[in-house]
UniProtKB/TrEMBL annotation:
Cofactor: FMN
Binding site for glyoxylate: 133, 168, 259, 262
Binding site for FMN: 82-84, 131, 159, 235, 257, 290-294, 313-314
GO molecular function, one term: FMN binding
Residues at the active site: 259 (proton acceptor)
UniProt cross-references to SUPFAM superfamilies, sorted A to Z: FMN-linked oxidoreductases
UniProt similarity note: Belongs to the FMN-dependent alpha-hydroxy acid dehydrogenase family.
UniProt domain FMN hydroxy acid dehydrogenase: residue ranges: 3-364
Name of the protein: 4-hydroxymandelate oxidase
Organism: Lentzea albida
Amino acid sequence: MTTTAASAVCLADLATAARSVTPDDVWDFVEGGSGAELSLVANRAALDDVYLVPRVLRDVSRPHASRVLLGTSTTMPVVVAPMAYQRLLHPDGELAAARAARSAGIPFTVPMLSSVAVEEVARSEADLWFQLYWLRDRAMTVDLLARAEAAGCRAIVLTVDVPLMGRRLRDLRNGFTLPRDVVAAHFPDAAATTQLQRAGTSAVAEHTRDAFDPSLSWSDIDWLRSATELPIVLKGLLAPQDAARAARTGVDAVVVSNHGGRQLDGALPGIRALPAVRDAVDDSCDVLLDGGIRSGVDVVKALALGASGVLVGRPVLHGLALDGTRGVEDALALLRAELDHALALAGCRDLGDAAGLATTTGTRGPGW
């Protein structure tokens, strides 16, 4: 029987089904990591290596999974991660995914490299966050901030781990380029580079090399704070020292992430970095985890190790490839059902209980 988004019983089913309907080069762009993909594989392996110590006799007949993130009430501690060029998977792209996020009651992060402009994504009426990369063109950065604010975005997510794009070997081997009907909607001149195919190169990487500013530093965070009144999230931290400094600058949240294994190959998995980052910032800002989340149990593991919530990426694209908005709705509904189930089986009445769970790992032995 052919698996559809609606018939999937886990997010891995969605991935298998999405693979069958996605062109090879697009699949590699979505699924691939950098270098030998050590960090890509490690993200999943590290999550699998965390074991929860469930509690019992706690009356979990009505588990409660809602949370407030950056002032927004969410039905579960999940945010859709920023992912570029979603019209590669479905003609409605980011608009379709944002509509599904609204139905699920969670925020959607508009990628700066979106194939649908933020003004159009806002038609979804979802709670929107806006991703920002640091651009060489400061005037364009100011313009994008103004557009995000005017569109009703509730937070700015500055991705700080991409001074330049990682060497994504699958894309280089494929000479990856965007089709003519997919463009970087916030970059009107990008089509000239992103649709130019050359063997052994990635058109997307060449565009970002020209557009992104590798001189980004802590002083620029102060400038960003002065340029917007929206909450600021720094995405892509692993070192507790960086997290502590981010908290001192007054950011509202940090995202512990190795960019889904797509930047420095060999970088620490986010779930391994999470406890130290949480300790470094204490309660001064929210701490979110990104990278490898594939089940409700993974969400509970992240909460137990100190996360306020998680970002979910590739499973959203899998649902999008299968059935647009409905496919993403099915993916998020499945994640929510798994989360409720995992909370109950772990003896958690709410997310506070999940944060109090003890954990251990298969490699280090008992940790409680």
